[in-house]
Amino acid sequence: NHWWKNARQRLGAGGVVITWEMFKREFWVKYFPADVRNRKVVEFLELKQGNMTVAEYATKFEALSAFSPYYN
């Protein structure tokens, strides 16, 4: 909670409306280290169906796509 108060003061300075994208960026920086994000991006880019069903693959694809700046 304390991190958000500080982030809100910083982001909302001058009456700027804080968007969902701004919040997500702050949250990811604080709670999701860059090396973990980068591993998830690589996992997304290298994803292959292999032995997964189409439904399993689609679920994995959707979950990992959230980490990829190339897809969103």
What topology does this entry show?
Blueprint: H1 2-11, H2 20-31, H3 34-45, H4 54-65
Helix pairs in contact: 1-2
Domain Retrotransposon gag: 2-68
Protein name: Retrotransposon gag domain-containing protein
InterPro entries: Retrotrans_gag_dom
Could you describe the 3D structure shown?
- With 72 residues, the protein is an all-alpha fold.
- The protein folds into two domains: 1-31, no CATH class; 33-72.
- It has helices at residues 2-11, 20-31, 34-45, 54-65.
- α1 packs across α2 (20-31).
- It is elongated and about 50 Å long.
Q: How many domains make up the 3D coordinates? A: 2
Tally of alpha and pi helices: 4
Oligomer: single chain
Task: Estimate percent helicity.
Answer: 55-70%
Strand content: under 5%
Query: Count the strands?
Result: 0
In short:
Pfam families: Retrotrans_gag. This protein is an all-alpha fold.
List key phrases describing it:
mainly alpha; 2 domains; elongated
